[in-house]
């Protein structure tokens, strides 16, 4: 067999994830591997948990990264908190709300679904009406940042409604964490999961999660076994040392992805250096510049302004323009990746990400210039010069 080392091209990643990795994160991946039970590695794990608490804005002792992608973070929340027969209200306004419903079913629960239009936030009034109609519901689940549409829901209000009706909350913050305000303790969120590859700009494959004391009490008081051995928090916590106050000894559970955790630690150190509020502000400021350029080309964002995510922009594809052709040309001619639409929006929108290290001024200029050039070649007749001028005029004067 003839084989040689894989050498990937250098791309600019402006899709729905993964985002570009900062050089410091790439360097962290190359550091010497130590054993996953090495005391030195254990010290790094403790620091990593503290850094995640800062990112989530929480003091939850059960805060850690699951050794698997964000989808496993989702499953961790559902398989641990949902027992057979539990009624779970699931708010669906895109692909990932639908995945929540599937997790409820597989955990043996009964999903009570609330549907909102794709591209719109979850309607708090519908949630309240549903909880009034189902007073025996135990959990409310919703997506803060719906990656399939670019819609942002009012997490604080939804969590407050759930608490009023005695429900725990499960929140998908895969695209939200470090890109949009997320205050787990202040908003009373019980279980939240995210992914390492979005606004944290880390390698894919890790899923930060955090559980409140209320949620942990439900996990430890289950009447039935968790329907996953690998994701059973009663077992995992023996390794991460977060299940018992003062616990220092770690028991073997699995071989953690050591170097990937180095990378996550580095990305969280960088987040702490920037400041979480400054990270939120950077994503918003660069979103406004991207929006200015897109609108100057005559392109429309799908989500109403008050409900838009800054880090994930769903853009309507102009009439007569083929989705796949544009994305292929951007990739092949400019080494620029943007995302396709999912589900009901497939073929109708592009998803342009501004996440983590991808959220910087030179990427906005590249994206507007390249997209305008390709669209003009395809006969769309956009004013690329005006679009670049609008985007650059809206960019923050100080480098962010």
Automatic annotation (TrEMBL):
Cofactors demanded by this protein: pyridoxal 5'-phosphate
Segments forming domain Aminotransferase class V: 122-342
A family per Pfam: Aminotran_5
Residues holding substrate: 351
Molecular function GO labels: alanine-glyoxylate transaminase activity; L-serine-pyruvate transaminase activity
Modification N6-(pyridoxal phosphate)lysine occurs at: 198
Record flagged with keyword Transmembrane helix: no
InterPro entries (UniProt xref): Aminotrans_V_dom, Aminotrans_V_PyrdxlP_BS, PyrdxlP-dep_Trfase, PyrdxlP-dep_Trfase_major, PyrdxlP-dep_Trfase_small, SP_NH2Trfase/AEP_transaminase
Organism superkingdom: Bacteria
Keywords: Aminotransferase, Pyridoxal phosphate, Transferase
Coiled coil feature spans: none
GO biological process: glycine biosynthetic process, by transamination of glyoxylate
Recorded family membership: Belongs to the class-V pyridoxal-phosphate-dependent aminotransferase family.
Name of the protein this chain belongs to: Alanine--glyoxylate aminotransferase family protein
Organism (species): Thiohalocapsa marina
Record lineage: Bacteria, Pseudomonadati, Pseudomonadota, Gammaproteobacteria, Chromatiales
